[in-house]
Design brief:
Blueprint: E1 4-14, E2 17-28, H1 32-41, H2 49-73, E3 81-83, E4 86-93, E5 96-103, H3 106-113, E6 117-119, H4 121-127, H5 136-143, E7 157-163, E8 166-172, E9 178-184, H6 187-197, H7 206-210, H8 215-222, H9 242-250, H10 258-279, E10 282-288, H11 295-304, E11 309-311, H12 322-335, H13 343-346, E12 356-358, E13 376-379
Parallel strand pairs: 2-13, 3-6, 7-10, 10-11
Antiparallel strand pairs: 1-2, 4-5, 6-12, 7-8, 8-9
Helix pairs in contact: 2-3, 6-10, 8-10, 10-11
């Protein structure tokens, strides 16, 4: 909830290959008061119908501003806008996803740009008995397949890792297609930084670097039942939130300083990610998301793994805009009449065309549905025509 990532991209389907060329990227900060309202709406906060309506509208208007920037990055020409939405709640019980809620009313985006808007991608996968997350599996499986990513290692599973608020992995080339949330990424780290220092994040891991891991706290954190659940599985800030952190800290016999707390939470993220990667026999781990900017976290991850750990930029995929590029891909697949989920990664009963479409200013004219499902994705440089 630190801002809205925007990317403009050109996508083309050539036989079984999708070619993706980024045209530009940017980030828009949420207005400070809106960000505070969003954070307050997360569990354990309460959200009544009036507040929900306000947030859905205000986030939609902020997304509309972001979409205007995206159209500008595309030199004023675009076919559609894809919006992943702002997650407020992910309803999971007994290891099954029962519902998911992303806000940001797409009508505001359509009104601002005149373009059709494809949004609400996760709900259809959940309705098909999937988790609706992580959807990154469809991008990673195409990108890391065959010759999609240069410099592919020898036999063995590749793991694409995204470290956002929640960390998730996609396993490519393993025993079966697989993707799942490993646990907290930056969520608890950011929360602790906000509570202890008033800053939204532990910039460059400076606080974590100043402290030492408290092994009694780490042991308690690692005992969370989520880590023992089988994949596919998903989680979010409805679980790893302020109440969770307060409850765990209340069980400590001795108080914990700021540096030690951040060091321990950073170690938790690295440890749980590494445990998942080892369990999947990873031969290489390719990292994207905001966590790549935390050198303490990356160092801890490399310490726990004995395989190469690369940043996705090394293979041509911009780490900071990967999730926005995923959203563009999901929109393109829906626009082309193709499924946007990978059942083996979300647990869905089968492939589904994802999302709902809000028409633009001139009605809705979809292209003829593609007849050949893609098997690979190749990144093209912005300079490539």
């Amino acid at each position: 909830m630190d801002g809205i990532d925007v990317v403009a991209a050109d996508l083309r389907l050539d036989g079984e290959t999708i070619e993706l060329r980024p045209l530009g990227e940017g980030t828009l900060d949420y207005p400070a008061d809106l960000r505070e309202e969003l954070l307050s709406a997360l569990p354990p906060g309460d959200l009544d119908a009036e507040a929900f309506c306000r947030l859905d509208t205000l986030v939609g208007q902020s997304f509309a501003d972001a979409a205007r920037l995206g159209v500008h990055l595309a030199d004023g020409e675009a076919d559609f806008v894809a919006s992943l939405g702002q997650t407020l709640y992910h309803w999971v019980e007994g290891g099954h996803a029962l519902g998911t809620l992303q806000i940001g009313q797409p009508a505001w985006i359509a009104e601002a740009t005149g373009l059709p808007v494809i949004a609400d991608f996760r709900a259809r996968d959940v309705a098909a008995e999937g988790h609706g997350a992580p959807l990154a599996g469809v991008l990673d499986a195409l990108w890391l397949a065959d010759d999609g990513a240069q410099g592919k290692p020898g036999p063995g599973a590749q793991v694409a890792l995204n470290i956002g608020g929640i960390a998730n992995i996609t396993v490519v080339g393993g025993r079966e297609p697989l993707a799942y949330d490993t646990g907290p990424g930056n969520a608890l780290i950011d929360l602790a930084a906000q509570q202890r220092t008033g800053r939204a994040q532990d910039t460059d891991g400076a606080l974590a670097a100043s402290g030492s891991v408290r092994h009694d706290l780490l042991a308690t954190l690692l005992d969370d039942g989520y880590y023992r659940l089988p994949a596919p599985k998903s989680t979010g800030k409805e679980h790893f939130n302020s109440s969770y952190l307060d409850r765990v800290l209340a069980g400590l016999r001795d108080p914990i300083g700021d540096g030690d707390l951040l060091a321990t939470l950073t170690e938790l993220t690295a440890r749980t990610i590494a445990d998942a990667c080892r369990a999947e026999d990873a031969s290489r781990v390719v990292v994207a998301g905001g966590g790549v900017h935390n050198p303490v976290l990356l160092a801890a991850l490399r310490r726990h793994l004995d395989v190469p750990v690369l940043v996705s930029d090394d293979l041509g995929m911009p780490a900071d805009s990967k999730e926005a590029l995923l959203t563009a891909l999901l929109g393109f697949l829906t626009w082309s009449g193709l499924p946007g989920n990978t059942p083996g990664t979300t647990g869905a009963a089968g492939p589904r065309v994802l999302g709902s479409i809000t028409p633009g200013a001139t009605g809705l004219r979809l292209p003829e549905p593609a007849t050949t499902p893609p098997r690979r994705l190749i990144m093209r440089s912005a300079a490539t025509n």
